[in-house]
Amino acid sequence: MGSTIIGCGKSLPALEVENDELQALVDTNDEWIATRTGIRSRHIALTESNADLGEAAARRALGWEPSGWTQRAIEADEIDLLICATVTSDVVVPSAAGMLKRRLGLGNAIAFDVNAACSGFVYGMTVAETMMAASAAGTVGAVGRNPVRRALVVGVERLTRLTNWFDRNTCVLFGDGAGAVVLEWDEERAGIIGSYLVNEDDVTNALTCPSAFDAPQPFDRSGVSLAEPIPVDRAQDRIDEELATLESVQAGEPRQVLRMDGPRVFKFATAAMTEAVHRVLDRSNLTLDDVKCIVPHQANERIIKYAAKKLNRPLDFFQVSIGDTGNSSAASVPMALADAYASGRIKQGDKVILTAFGGGFTSGAVLFEA
Ligand code: ACO
């Protein structure tokens, strides 16, 4: 018994930007980007919101629209849980999952977001599976309106909104998109067999992105308790000072963008991914020989090649979808999984590993039987 994937879909924004087009912004070229990363183009959400992308992927996974892979169409009221993995929700409140719940009319679903950067989807799948297993075992019974028998897990990002388009070290890497799966508790089939999640402190701040809350404010009373307002005679000076700071910051480097020490992340990623694969196999009492394929986070094709070498498997053992997507953070694993289903690569009974790493540092793997 276990949580089985019964639907999977993805969605990409309409605008596709080729490597060469980035030359208009930074000193780069197609050859550098393609050989160092495997990326040839990426999709950028100019008009689509996070909720638009998530909704389109979810509709395909639910069998409401064509082009997804589904065992059967799911009714809206059959979904008991909706988890959205994202770092780029359109608004802070409601959550991205809350927005999707409304749009999809999932009246019974408990809905919340998971932020584990690029590992978010693997974390979200694990949380969903754990809630479904606990519900089936009667440990938590009906946490929501119903026992948790079916879950929609969505990975969705508009990472290009957090991209510094004048930094060639990062702007060539990222793209937008969404992927979704429907999980169903099955008393007969194995479904998700094992999970492994781990967090390591990113001690050198190799991967960071400030939040909007970090932006300077003209009325920031740093060091002054809100209960002790600035005396009226000093207030104007204070406001002038704060406005000057704000203007200087606005004129400089954009604040709310991803900053990354690429080589440091590369080193972490390769070690984390191979460790996660070994650990999830160990705790599932399986070996790599039992596994049909690995669907990894799509951050850089060279990272996947390195993992292939370490795991002693050819590159085609891995689903590689990065060519036309770039790194879409939490959306990358479910989008690559949707490609694997759509191409017929995954058949019922196959064992598959999903693995990811990301900011935090987070990493992990999920092993499931299709
Ligand atoms: N075009 C041309 N040249 C470039 C570009 C570019 N877009 N970017 C960097 N360069 C230059 C550098 O300036 C450097 O030049 P120098 O030698 O004169 O100083 C040279 O290319 C080599 O730079 P490196 O950073 O050493 O290149 P590397 O081979 O390590 O590749 C990359 C960089 C692609 C970023 C790689 O380190 C990587 O993929 N790291 C992991 C990134 C990752 O996985 N991030 C996602 C994790 S989580 C998340 O998604 C949020």
TrEMBL record:
Pfam families: ACP_syn_III, ACP_syn_III_C. Residues 112-197 form the Beta-ketoacyl-[acyl-carrier-protein] synthase III N-terminal domain. GO terms for molecular function: 3-oxoacyl-[acyl-carrier-protein] synthase activity. Keywords: Acyltransferase, Transferase. Residues 281-369 form the Beta-ketoacyl-[acyl-carrier-protein] synthase III C-terminal domain. One of its GO terms (biological process) is secondary metabolite biosynthetic process. This is Ketoacyl-ACP synthase III.
